[in-house]
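ok so for the tutorial part 2 we go from a plain amino acid sequence to predicted C-alpha coordinates. step 1 is just haveing the sequence, like this:
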Amino acid sequence: MSKLIKYLYFFHTLVMVIIGISIWFIINQFFPDMMVNGFGVIPVFFYFMGIIFIWRFKKAPFHDSGYIVNLYMLLRMIKVFTSFAIILIYWLVHKSYIRNFAIIFIIFYLISILWETYIYLKMEKYMKYKADQNKHHEEREHIV
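step 2 — the prediction. this is what the C-alpha coordinates look like for a chain of 144 residues:
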Protein backbone atom coordinates (compact mmCIF):
# COMPACT_ATOMS: atom_id res chain seq x y z
CA MET A 1 0.00 0.00 0.00
CA SER A 2 2.84 2.35 0.84
CA LYS A 3 4.26 2.03 -2.67
CA LEU A 4 0.86 2.82 -4.23
CA ILE A 5 0.34 5.86 -1.98
CA LYS A 6 3.80 7.22 -2.76
CA TYR A 7 3.12 6.71 -6.46
CA LEU A 8 -0.22 8.53 -6.18
CA TYR A 9 1.28 11.44 -4.21
CA PHE A 10 4.09 11.82 -6.72
CA PHE A 11 1.89 11.45 -9.77
CA HIS A 12 -0.75 13.80 -8.30
CA THR A 13 1.89 16.47 -7.73
CA LEU A 14 3.23 16.01 -11.24
CA VAL A 15 -0.25 16.14 -12.81
CA MET A 16 -1.28 19.27 -10.90
CA VAL A 17 1.96 21.08 -11.79
CA ILE A 18 1.65 20.16 -15.47
CA ILE A 19 -2.04 21.07 -15.62
CA GLY A 20 -1.50 24.34 -13.74
CA ILE A 21 1.37 25.46 -15.95
CA SER A 22 -0.40 24.29 -19.13
CA ILE A 23 -3.63 26.14 -18.38
CA TRP A 24 -1.71 29.25 -17.32
CA PHE A 25 0.28 29.12 -20.57
CA ILE A 26 -2.82 28.60 -22.73
CA ILE A 27 -4.65 31.47 -21.04
CA ASN A 28 -1.64 33.81 -21.36
CA GLN A 29 -1.01 32.95 -25.01
CA PHE A 30 -4.51 32.60 -26.43
CA PHE A 31 -6.92 34.24 -23.97
CA PRO A 32 -5.00 36.99 -22.13
CA ASP A 33 -8.22 38.81 -21.28
CA MET A 34 -9.31 35.71 -19.27
CA MET A 35 -6.36 35.90 -16.86
CA VAL A 36 -7.51 36.63 -13.32
CA ASN A 37 -5.83 37.83 -10.17
CA GLY A 38 -5.17 34.92 -7.88
CA PHE A 39 -4.91 32.30 -10.63
CA GLY A 40 -2.44 30.37 -8.48
CA VAL A 41 -5.10 29.76 -5.84
CA ILE A 42 -6.98 27.44 -8.19
CA PRO A 43 -4.28 24.80 -8.83
CA VAL A 44 -3.13 24.99 -5.20
CA PHE A 45 -6.71 24.37 -4.00
CA PHE A 46 -7.09 21.32 -6.23
CA TYR A 47 -3.65 20.07 -5.28
CA PHE A 48 -4.51 20.11 -1.57
CA MET A 49 -7.92 18.58 -2.20
CA GLY A 50 -6.19 15.72 -4.04
CA ILE A 51 -3.68 15.27 -1.22
CA ILE A 52 -6.54 15.05 1.28
CA PHE A 53 -8.35 12.62 -1.05
CA ILE A 54 -5.34 10.29 -1.23
CA TRP A 55 -4.53 10.62 2.48
CA ARG A 56 -8.09 9.81 3.53
CA PHE A 57 -8.20 6.71 1.35
CA LYS A 58 -4.89 5.63 2.86
CA LYS A 59 -6.56 5.62 6.29
CA ALA A 60 -9.73 3.80 5.15
CA PRO A 61 -10.36 0.14 6.01
CA PHE A 62 -9.90 -1.87 2.84
CA HIS A 63 -12.15 -4.75 3.80
CA ASP A 64 -15.33 -2.61 3.79
CA SER A 65 -16.09 -1.62 0.21
CA GLY A 66 -19.34 0.12 1.24
CA TYR A 67 -17.36 2.43 3.48
CA ILE A 68 -14.95 3.20 0.64
CA VAL A 69 -17.78 4.16 -1.69
CA ASN A 70 -19.39 6.34 1.00
CA LEU A 71 -16.04 7.98 1.70
CA TYR A 72 -15.55 8.68 -2.00
CA MET A 73 -18.98 10.32 -2.23
CA LEU A 74 -18.40 12.29 0.99
CA LEU A 75 -15.10 13.62 -0.32
CA ARG A 76 -16.83 14.65 -3.55
CA MET A 77 -19.50 16.56 -1.60
CA ILE A 78 -16.87 18.28 0.53
CA LYS A 79 -15.07 19.28 -2.65
CA VAL A 80 -18.28 20.73 -4.12
CA PHE A 81 -18.99 22.82 -1.01
CA THR A 82 -15.43 24.05 -0.61
CA SER A 83 -15.36 24.92 -4.31
CA PHE A 84 -18.49 27.01 -3.90
CA ALA A 85 -16.91 28.68 -0.87
CA ILE A 86 -13.76 29.55 -2.84
CA ILE A 87 -15.80 30.99 -5.70
CA LEU A 88 -17.97 32.95 -3.25
CA ILE A 89 -14.92 34.39 -1.49
CA TYR A 90 -13.39 35.36 -4.81
CA TRP A 91 -16.68 36.96 -5.85
CA LEU A 92 -16.74 39.03 -2.67
CA VAL A 93 -13.15 40.19 -3.24
CA HIS A 94 -13.09 40.64 -7.06
CA LYS A 95 -16.62 41.14 -8.35
CA SER A 96 -15.59 42.23 -11.83
CA TYR A 97 -13.55 39.10 -12.69
CA ILE A 98 -15.82 36.43 -11.22
CA ARG A 99 -16.93 35.09 -14.63
CA ASN A 100 -13.36 34.42 -15.76
CA PHE A 101 -12.42 32.94 -12.39
CA ALA A 102 -15.45 30.65 -12.40
CA ILE A 103 -14.71 29.41 -15.93
CA ILE A 104 -11.10 28.61 -15.07
CA PHE A 105 -12.17 27.04 -11.78
CA ILE A 106 -14.71 24.81 -13.56
CA ILE A 107 -12.06 23.65 -16.04
CA PHE A 108 -9.79 22.65 -13.14
CA TYR A 109 -12.74 21.05 -11.35
CA LEU A 110 -13.58 18.85 -14.32
CA ILE A 111 -9.96 17.82 -14.76
CA SER A 112 -9.65 17.02 -11.06
CA ILE A 113 -12.81 14.89 -11.16
CA LEU A 114 -11.27 12.81 -13.93
CA TRP A 115 -7.99 12.53 -12.03
CA GLU A 116 -9.66 11.58 -8.73
CA THR A 117 -11.75 8.97 -10.50
CA TYR A 118 -8.49 7.47 -11.81
CA ILE A 119 -7.09 7.49 -8.25
CA TYR A 120 -10.24 5.83 -6.94
CA LEU A 121 -10.06 3.14 -9.63
CA LYS A 122 -6.39 2.48 -8.77
CA MET A 123 -7.34 2.10 -5.10
CA GLU A 124 -10.21 -0.25 -5.95
CA LYS A 125 -7.97 -2.34 -8.18
CA TYR A 126 -5.38 -2.56 -5.40
CA MET A 127 -8.06 -3.54 -2.85
CA LYS A 128 -9.35 -6.31 -5.12
CA TYR A 129 -5.82 -7.53 -5.73
CA LYS A 130 -5.13 -7.70 -1.98
CA ALA A 131 -8.47 -9.40 -1.30
CA ASP A 132 -7.71 -12.03 -3.94
CA GLN A 133 -4.25 -12.60 -2.49
CA ASN A 134 -5.68 -13.07 1.00
CA LYS A 135 -8.45 -15.36 -0.27
CA HIS A 136 -6.00 -17.57 -2.14
CA HIS A 137 -3.72 -17.68 0.90
CA GLU A 138 -6.60 -18.79 3.14
CA GLU A 139 -7.64 -21.44 0.61
CA ARG A 140 -4.12 -22.83 0.55
CA GLU A 141 -4.09 -23.11 4.36
CA HIS A 142 -7.27 -25.18 4.29
CA ILE A 143 -5.91 -27.54 1.64
CA VAL A 144 -2.76 -28.37 3.59
